[in-house]
Every structure is written in C-alpha cells, then in structure tokens.
Amino acid sequence: MNAANRDAEAMQAPSLNLVGKKVVIVGGKTGIGLGIALGAQAAGATVVVASRRVASAESRPDLAGFEQVSLDMRDESTVRSAFEAIGPFDHLVVTAAPDIGTWGGFMDADMAGVRSYMEGKFLGTWACARYAAPKLRANGSITFLSGGMATRPKPGFTAVTSAFAAVEALSGSLAIELAPTRVNTIRPGFIDTDMWSFLPEEARAGMKKKVEESFPARRAGQAKDIAHAALFLMTNPYVTGTVLEVSGGENLVASVS
Q: What is the CB-side half-sphere exposure of residue 60 using CA atoms within 13 A?
C-alpha cells in the first residue's frame, strides 16, 4: 500500500457495521437493553441477551432473533456459568439494574436496601466484566450503563448515585487494567421506555412533556438514541475509559422529577 492509499484509509471514519461480530447484552430483554440489542442486530451482529429468566417464543416473539442465556447479576456462579456457555464473543454491554425503588433510604433501619442495590448494579456489573473479559476476542469492548444521578444527586437516591458513580469509576479503571480491550460507560438522561411503567399514565405523560419543553434537545430520549451511542462505542477503536453522556442536555436545566 502506497502512502496516498494509507492516508486515504486513515481518513475514513469508522462505520457502525457489526457484521460477523457477536454481542452480549446483559439486560437485553427490555427498555434500553432491548433497544441496544435491536440496534446491534440491525448492524449485522449475532446478539445474545442475558437475563434472569429465559422467555418463551410464545410470550416474547420479539426476542425470536436473539439467543437467550440465563444470568442473575447478583449470583456470581450464574454469571460465570453464563459466560462459559456463551464462549468467545466480541462486545459486552451491561444495562441491567435492580428494580426501581429497591435501593432503600440512607437512614433506613438497616442497610439491606443499599447492599442489595450495590450487589445488583455495581458488583453485578463487576462480575459480568470479570467473567466476560477472558472470552472477548481481539478488538473487543465492554460498555456499562450508569445514569445522570452519577453527577446530579437527588434526595432519597443516595444508593443509586453511589452505584452509578462506582460503575463509571470501574470502567475507567478497567480501561487501563484490560487494555487493549476498550471499556466505556454510557450515562443516559431521561429515556422514554417501559422503565417508567410503574408511574400512572398521566404522570408519565406529564414528565415526558416537561422533558420536551425544558431539555435543550426539545425531545424525550428514546432507546434507539442509547443504541446508537452503544454502537459507536463498540465500533470506534480509539474510544476507551470514557463516560459518554446521552441526555438531551438534561444536566444543563432544572430537574423534571
């Protein structure tokens, strides 16, 4: 290859093409995780979704194109077994988190809530990376998911803020420890998914309206926005140790909740 051809190749932007790649998404059956799974599949990847329960084709026909694996992030032995069963692959994305409201309060009678939440979010993320790392092929990547509260605490959410901040710190540390495997975190803002289904429909619609009126992007986030960011992190070979905020400018304005 002559110098001109080398220069031309160097100037070509990486594509979001995942043809021939195998992507594992922990928490890929719902919400943001499902959005990333669909995005990776559309980009040509073979996709494995890992979650606590394997859904039947009858109950979840939308998962028919994915391989499913059972994995409970709070149980190290199932994490280890899941990645042994999956075998070699290219990219890991960890989106799973404990159920909303399970984290407890700072002054609760005991620390059961925060212990459970940290076990499910931070240590669960740690375990997935720990047992996935030896299975990752060359040029592989790991992507975690945090949230805006990592940098914008709110009363009653101390455990969530702490867990998110810990996940972001973990990704930076692993970017060094696992190099050249790339490790990053996506920090989403408000994303309109079924995560908010616990709210009454009127309250959910009101929150979305506030987002559309106040966020600089003037729209609510969608799962496909996070999927696009995840594909970028999987395919750009020069991004590692980074927290990529995809929030529509949420942290620039007053909180909507």
A: 15
Backbone angles phi, psi at 139, to 5 degrees: 70, 20
**Rounded alpha-carbon distances, angstroms, from residue 237 to 39, 111, 126, 231:** 19, 41, 22, 12
Is the distance from CB of 230 to CB of 39 less than 8 angstroms? yes
Q: Rounded CA gap, 125 and 73, in Å?
A: 7
Question: What pTM did the predictor assign?
Answer: 0.91
CA dist list (Å): 108 to 97, 102, 103: 21, 12, 10
Q: What are phi and psi of 34, to 5 degrees?
A: -65, -40
- pLDDT tens for each residue of the chain, 257 residues long: 566 566 555 566 668 999 999 999 999 899 999 999 999 999 999 999 999 988 888 889 989 899 999 999 999 999 999 999 999 999 999 999 888 888 989 999 999 999 999 999 999 999 999 999 999 999 999 999 999 999 999 999 999 999 999 999 999 999 999 999 999 999 999 999 877 777 788 888 888 999 999 999 999 999 999 999 999 999 999 999 999 999 999 989 988 87
Neighbours of 194 (CB within 10 A): 10
